[in-house]
Write a structure and sequence with these properties.
Distance between the termini: 20 Å
Structural class: mainly alpha
Number of helices: 12
Strand content: under 5%
Radius of gyration: 20 Å
Length: 307
Amino acid sequence: MRLVDERITPFLAGHGSDDDLDDLIADAVRQAKVRFRANAWGLGVRKAYEGSDFDTFLYIWGRPFFITADDPAAVAETVVRYCNSTVNEVDDLARSQIALLDPALVNHVEPDMNGTLPADEHLATGFRWKLDLLRGAASAVRAGRPTIRNGDGDEIPAADALTGNAQFCLVEFLAALLPGWIERGKVWPTELAERATTDGYAPLSDNTPLFGSLPTEFPSLDWESHWTIPANYAIGGYAAPSEIRPLRDWLSRNAEPLTAVGDQWDDRPYVRKALRKIDESLALAELTGSAFVEAAEIYIPMQGTMN
């Protein structure tokens, strides 16, 4: 949240210079390459491992990077190690995760390097073009210009571009710096809590804090926040750093009623796995002093956007 308040929303609001986020963009590029290499190891294990307990929707298309640890604290610590790694350090870290799964497998797995990653400059452009567009929208609003030109060259309302996209673009960029977990279906905490009879209320609030200083900077604009995920490509409930431990305790205390409601396919085991992923993500938030947020379509594995 310090990045939100001190770096990113001031940039979006038009303060400072156009290159003020260059260091964060460079870090996002480095981490993209780390993720690509780590996921290649996960895919390699998928080919080589003959055990039925290799859960691809946890180890590859669930947790960030490639992680096989069982304990949420160990998972969170490994995420941080990956985040701080160079590409050259990924292989040893991935091998340590293979050893946790099956020590005998370490010498029989190679990373599956099918596919390619864009060049660094193209990765950087992908991370920053939306931020630059919103910065331009904010500048237009300040100057009284009603429209801006989008990436396709079309004129669009500047105010709507800023208010309607700031949160999603912000979380999308933050996820390139500290990745999240992937899950399908209607299994985010506020969705489950709304349908279950639980012990007390979930310590989640609406996502207004993710606007940072923007509502103060542009008080005449309509800044709509949400307490749950309202649609695709949207941000949902928010837990401040101080609420992470209470949220973990609430989820643990209410695991049974939350699981009992099932997902939209009435799949209770699936909800149990989702709650495991949520707790792991909260362990990471607790370790790093971060907030927690629900979001839809930050990652779309079928389109190649991975955590």
